[in-house]
Amino acid sequence: MTDPVYRRVVIKLSGEYLAGQQGFGIDQATVDRVADDLIAARQLGAEVAVVIGGGNIVRGVEVSSRGVSRPTGDTMGMLATVMNCLAVEAAIERKGTPARTLSAFVMPEISELFTRAAAHKYLAEGRIVLLGGGTGNPFFTTDTTAVLRAAEIGAEAVLKATNVDGVYSADPKKDPAAKRFDRLTHSQAIEGGYKVMDATAFALARETSLPIIVFSIAEPGSISAILRGIGHGTIVAG
């Protein structure tokens, strides 16, 4: 078996993806498919941590636009990410692979608190580690969380699983002339204003010299393909 290109990664998944075709909540068939992909990535020999958004349940920005304060709305969104992590953790464990959810919030009855030491321990044991609760602070996205946690735990890359196969100059679903990039620097991604990841995440990745690989999660096995160096995506690095 070929060794993975990256030995330790943080995979960023959108919460919306877990809703499947229903558009809201958690679609179990989709969660099971994601669990299969994460397990396959782990079986390649990579140490796998996962950050999941919460948009399938609550989007803090949308909640705050209806009268709730932004910090409260963001906290609700961060709690939604914990729910998603628990759903994916359960699916992974049901398939016979050990997993563990670590949260940015103190909630001992539900999950263990995220610490670097705990993350290192469980990754070394071969568990898939789900990182819930965002950064624990309002005004930061789960994109930024993924880069922050990757820097904290010494990951070699952030794999941004999305609904398009890379970074485009415009939305390819709306603009047929949109150009797809094979490679960008962090600075080019920030200056281009590409919406696939927020500018704070790109800036932190630049500061910590972390590559971000943007790819489509739509095809089963896409995570493993990226780890084997044969996947189709955009590399944002340097």
Could you characterize the architecture of this molecule?
- With 238 residues, this protein is α/β, with parallel strands linked by helices.
- It is built from nine helices and eleven strands.
- The protein has a nine-stranded mixed β-sheet with strand order 4-3-5-2-1-6-10-11-9, with helices on both faces. Strands 7-8 form a two-stranded antiparallel sheet.
- Helix 2 (28-43) packs across helix 4, helix 6 (142-153) packs parallel to helix 8 and helix 7 (186-192) runs antiparallel to helix 8 (199-208).
- The protein starts with 7 loop residues before the first strand and ends with a strand.
- The relative contact order is 0.16.
Q: What would the average pLDDT be, to the nearest integer?
A: 95
Beta content:
15-25%
Number of helices: 9
Uncertain regions: pLDDT < 50 for 5+ in a row?
none
How many strand units? 11
Distance between the termini: 29 Å
Judged by helices, strands and strand pairing, the structural class is alpha/beta
Side by side, the strands of the main sheet go 4-3-5-2-1-6-10-11-9
N-to-C SSE series?
EHHEHHEEHEHEEEEHHEHE
Mass-distribution shape: globular
Radius of gyration in whole Å, from Cα?
17 Å
- Summarize the biggest pleated sheet: 9 strands, mixed
Helix share, percent: 25-40%
Subcellular location: Cytoplasm
GO molecular function: kinase activity
Keywords: Allosteric enzyme, ATP-binding, Cytoplasm, Kinase, Nucleotide-binding, Pyrimidine biosynthesis, Transferase
Catalytic activity: UMP + ATP = UDP + ADP
